[in-house]
Design a protein that fits this description.
The complex is a heterodimer. Chain A is mainly alpha-helical. Chain A contains 14 helices and two strands, in the order H-H-H-H-H-H-E-H-H-H-H-H-E-H-H-H. The radius of gyration of chain A is 21 Å and the shape is globular. Chain B contains eight helices and ten strands. Chain B is globular and about 60 Å long. The chains are: A mainly alpha, B alpha/beta. Chains A and B meet through helix 9 and helix 10 of A and helix 2 and helix 4 of B. The structure holds adenosine-5'-triphosphate and magnesium ion (MG).
Chain lengths: ~325, ~260
Amino acid sequence: MQQRNEPARAGYSPPRRSLYARVLDLALRPEASVVVVALVLVVYFEASTSNFLTDANLQTLSQFVAAPVILACGEIMLLICREIDLSVGQVFALAPFVMEKAYNIGIPVIGAMGVALIVCALIGLVIGLITIRLSVPSFITTLGMFFLITGITLTISRGFPADTPGGAGLTAVLGGWGYAEFLWSLVIVAIMHVVLRHTRWGLHTIATGGGAIAAAEAGININRIKIGNFMLTSTLGGFCGILEAFRIGSTDPLAGGSNIMFLGVASGVIGGTAIAGGAGTIIGGLVGGIVLGILQDGFTLLGINAFMFDIIIGAAILLAMVANIQLARWRGMRVE
Amino acid sequence: MTGMHGTEALRAEGIIKRFGSVEALSGVGMHVAAGEMLGILGDNGAGKSTLLKILTGYHQPDQGTITVGGQPQILSSVDRARALGIECVYQDLALINALSIYHNMFLNRELLKPGPFRLLDHRAMRTRAADALADIGVNIPNVDLEVGRLSGGQRQAIAVARAVQSDAKILLLDEPLAAMGAREAGLIIDLIERLKARGTIAIVMIAHNYAQTLEVCDRVMLMQHGTVTYESRAAETSPAELLEIVRREYREMRGGNGR
Ligand SMILES: Nc1ncnc2c1ncn2[C@@H]1O[C@H](COP(=O)(O)OP(=O)(O)OP(=O)(O)O)[C@@H](O)[C@H]1O
Ligand SMILES: [Mg+2]
């Protein structure tokens, strides 16, 4: 799909498509419509607040966007293979504390970060093993993990925030500088886009979600794919939590949570990932996250009250999802 | 061993397979030689597909032995069976609707670009997929199409083309003609006969059409209720005789049940 515009080679010539057909195709892609929505929103907020496109606000916006996008990268992989992780926001909160503990027993910051990420990957492994080996739906497994990890984080932090370790340079790179977290999210998006579209892992993830039996008949180890994607999602969640801790300069045991997790899932779904599996794009997750960020940031600038704000965000998410399902119909795809 | 055919390619003996309380296979044996084509006939639920899935490494038998090319083998996974040259067109076709034709044709044996990142070579897979389909003469407009948008017969043609393009030594086909129009079925039968003519490939085909099966196969085997009830060279039997055997078995079974 993503290769449509490559030139034809000898032996095989794709049917000629009119410019109109191509433009229509592009316009009906879920990401494309969301990009249009994002642009309209930018124009609207710039017109009505006139300080939307300032450096200070763009920094704020980038910080709204970064975490949901990073979490979306993992959730999209899981959704594509018909799983979900509700506990990634909890791993987000846990990881910086693990890093801090490791640092306090004398491991240098980078090493401590590595320890934290390994712990996150192991949490993903546990989620995967419970889901696959014990046939517990991942919705339930990660619902349990949600509470379990919250408890662990509160226990090891004793409920108090802690200072983030590390020198000034490292802190700047890992989140201290205004756009650092957003740049990290772009790097992760780029890598995950390549993984999904241009590696066997990505293809097998789509195959696993698109038809588990068929994938297994073709020899794909669908359990390995799913467990791997659980580990990936938890690790990204932990990494994101660490970035956030470096940005803020302290670690909050109540950071992350269900809010950030649902923003991640919503980013993916707004960007065209099907909850039913088998389809989704990382770029869509990025664009979806940007739209959510613009909404949050824009309404904050407008000074809309917090209750109204949630109503608008909720309606926007619903609208975007409905629009995507309709667009998919128009494209003639099966949507289940 | 089989006289006019080459060396034995695949043999299974005493295969038992249970799914919970259902015994799908109760001690089944089969063998096929290089250059030979074996047809498997039998009622719905007789265990034909289950036997095939054991031979592809998809299911593990509860009991029984399998030899490939004379060597005892444990087909512990689909990859293992594939490594031994066993390819299959499954009854459900094992295609992923959400993926393009060319991705499906190379599913789990993707072509990769050289280099450390092991990236997919979409371009090479496309060209080769289009060529493989053109070779067979199957009419597919564009290998970029999602498989879910194809007709049943086209899907079947893709599954067959995928199994054939892989240089299999042992080709297992589970009702490969079921959804095909007359022209396409003819193309696939031609293709199978060409493969057979090479004399190096052993083919096993499950089918429901007695006459067609007797025509293309060298030997046929009748399965009922998880056992092999009859085996014959194709030239030495007829559709009428096979039908009579099935009827007789059915009557005996009902009699045995006291109905
Ligand atoms: N994965 C499975 N789990 C449980 N039971 C199964 C499974 N696969 C097959 N069976 C059972 O095993 C028996 C044989 O099924 P199988 O698919 O091998 O039949 P078949 O001969 O291929 O039939 P058909 O001609 O309809 O394709 C049936 O009773 C079926 O219900
Ligand atoms: Mg069958």
